[in-house]
Amino acid sequence: MISQDENSIRDVAALDLLLSEPDEPTIRSLAAVQGDILVLGVGGKMGPTLARTARRASDAAGISRRVIGVARFSSPQLEKQLNSWGVETIRCDLLDRRALAALSDAPNIIYMAGMKFGSTGQESLTWAMNSFLPGLICERFPKSRIAAFSTGNVYGLSPIAKAGSCEADSLNPVGEYAMSCLGRERMFEHFSRTLSIPVSIIRLNYATELRYGVLVDIAQRVFSGQPVSLSMGYLNAIWQGDANAMSLQSLAFASSPPFVINIAGAELLSVREMAQEFSARFQKPVQFEGVEAPDALLSNSHKSRQHFGPPRVSLEKMLDYIADWTIRGGETLAKPTHFENRDGRF
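Given the sequence above, the corresponding structure tokens read:
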């Protein structure tokens, strides 16, 4: 089980082990879901540890199944690492219809493919990945159960006083990335309704660990003496291990029409206060630029807490882990979230 007694994670191997540790609800949930699991787009920031969580939870439940990760695998090292964790791998460009058709059928699909960073200037590819590809996937796997990743960006900005957008709220995406993500949701919804595909749509906002995430961005700026932008003055953050577990559990809730769920941290976090928390841990001064706006990109996680319970890793623990990792010069992915962008351009 995750230890709440230690404030330090030794290295990347220990981090990956912790991020992929399944809790009892996830073990029970995957025990009740029959068949193999195909993780499409496993090569992203979250995919490897999610696939490993599925493998470990299935093993703990005594379920014999294949967990298969699909990606282009520009890094052979990632493919070897997944294999070492018991996750099978298939190299595939999902936009290639013949390669997609050659994939084996699987009763359970985790859809993680998509494009965000670099989308500005590559709008057509962004729409192809985020809106066209989901239709291809539904046509290819009409008999599967699908958990499809989306984003809180589909809501647009909401007033701070509202404490985050809820699943039933109207959607107001800002920028082509967010609009294409709404297109992704609509494609899954359309095929879920017309082909009776059970789907869960996961609006994630934001998963974080020690190598990337909104809290890591803030910590690095404080530690390096760079000013922290307050243009997006509030945010959500959830430990990636908890996001992995909840996303896998959402398979059991997949339905037609789709089951929609926000996966986000329980608290509405002030960027100013988070920076001050890191300032105290680093014993370094913090600089700010700009002022907080009356609205932000925020998700209400009440529904996910009802279905999955609270996150196992608290905000205080995340701050301690990230501060310790930053001080020790731990590895990062060098992929800032650009959480401060209010115009939807990534």
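Residues 1-5 have pLDDT under 50 and may be disordered. Try to locate this feature in the token string yourself.
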